[in-house]
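Field: sequence (string)
Field: structure_tokens (string)

Example rows 1 and 2, in order.
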Amino acid sequence: MNTYLNKLHYSLYVIFHPFDGFWDLKREKRGSLGAALTIMFSLILVYILQRQYTAFLFNLNNLNELNIVLEIVSVLLPFLLWCIANWCLTTLADGEGTFKDIVIATSYALTPLIIINTPLILLSYLINLEEGAFYYFFASISILWSAGLLVLGTMVTHDYSLKKTLLTVLGILISMAVMIFLGLLFTSVIQQIIGFFYVIYKEIVFKF
């Protein structure tokens, strides 16, 4: 249990010392898949709480239309697409990280989204709209911080140069867009096929 907690707590070291942190995650096994999954589930929980309980001044969501399954998918799907695209591209480009390494590094890189956005839920009730710049500032910092960590995590995990890392990240984002497009296209085709057979079924039922 202490080992698990130490690996989970190591995420705080990673976000402030990314080069050493990501290096030790992979080479020294300072992180673990269990801790990484805990971070991911925590991020999903924080995202749901933020969407549901942020003060109405800063919450543009229609609470009556929120669907917890869609909220989970909206966090989990980009995470999985990033990891899959990362692994596919870096495998072809002599990357040193395994899929497990990528999942761990990606999860640890998202820690700022948790530690910053959690208190922002409470902060949203303590400030007015004129002071909202502070809210949006810290929300933006959490995103930029995690984005920077994703880039550095990719660089250290695969032992790439900065230039190769930036090209790889661009390739990952393009690959994610392609996978989303293909997924939507596949879903549309399946719906049309189902609709076609449903029409045939209705014709047969009405005739007989």
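Row 2 begins here:
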Amino acid sequence: MAWYDEAVFYHIYPLGMTGAPKQNDYGTPVERLNELLPWITHIKNLGCNAIYIGPLFESVGHGYETTDYKKLDSRLGTNETLKNFVSECHRENIRVIFDGVFNHTGRDFFAFRDLKENRENSRYKDWYCNVNFWGNNSYNDGFSYENWRGHDLLVKLNQRNPEVIGYICDVIRFWVEEFDVDGIRLDAADVLDFDFMKELRRVANEIKPEFWLMGEVIHGDYIRWANADMLHSVTNYHLHKALYSGYNDHNFFEIAHTVKRLYEMGGNRLEGLKLYNFTDNHDVERIASKLNAKDSEGKPAGFIPVHILLYTLPGIPSVYYGSEFGIEGKKGHGAETDEPLRPELVYEKWKERAKSDSYVQSLSVLGNIHKQRKELSYGEYRELFLTTRQYAFARTYQDSAVIIMVNNDDNACTIQVPANGEYTGAFSGKKISASGSLLAEIGGNSGEIWIPTDK
């Protein structure tokens, strides 16, 4: 058992949340990261005990074109600003993981600047992939190179070069020594070299107890990345898609089938594959925008049941900043595609709403239940009831079972599942006695978590 096995994450894109300029002039640092300090109490009240924040380090634009891995982005402050932020989180028993952008660098990174200046004579020419001095690129450098997804701004590192491997490992050691970070989310892990990731895991095992490595992987057999030799976890895009499309299509079979397939991927053992679950993030549209059906107030009808599933299905739940308020966000066009997904949130404008917002209150219930009940972190998963519009399952740990029921029909329904003992509804507070079966009415577009009465 490690801290991340019981984690509930809050995901922050700091350049967006603090309203930083879109372009970095590398000028005098502005300590915008301090604007996030008041949010720590809110994050803790949500029941979150971990923060994934990034990208953080010096870059020219959106943060993924790194200029300096050892310097906080000037738009956010100085290294002391970041040290203080992590320290304040740790003071509240909140772990912190950084974004590790190790697949590529920006063009202002020292090795690439040397390559531009010295060309064939650069000692860093082998730090990058497929450098061709007979070619050219969109910046008219007079040479070409491999980039990330067609973006010449993002120059692909040669992860098989021992100097590159050593440099990145030193960066990770620096982050631990300088900032006391608790783990790293590896950007674009689905295109990272496997041997490179094995070396990162070896370093992670050395530098800090329970140092967590989580990778961004979109498609594929997740166990190829998340295993004892490489990463502890990866992003669960399979479940992300199933949650909103299964709800929109009134098809809980899609969600249940996805869970079963992922469970089998891990060898039908909970510890076999523990994934990072989410409904939205800085790259995909907000869940409030993706859920089609609206309630009488114009809010997404499925918001609460989808989040009940997020917090109770196998995996590590994560909330993207602002989505606890049900804010919307759809992708834009052209170069500003992702900007609507990464808005500025000023704490003073949201702190009062946080006290009474129904979504915040519901997610706080979910977050705190997840922390309190070991079943939701370590419990085996068992499907109990499934139709296109109703879904029930149990999470069982040490002979104690938490039972989850959700309903995506507009009308109330009755769900009956095998169970024994006394249970209390986490949301309703209703008490039910089960002798062989638990029978409960679940409201339309709603759900309940039945907690066994501890004796």
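free_text_note (row 2): The mean pLDDT is 96.
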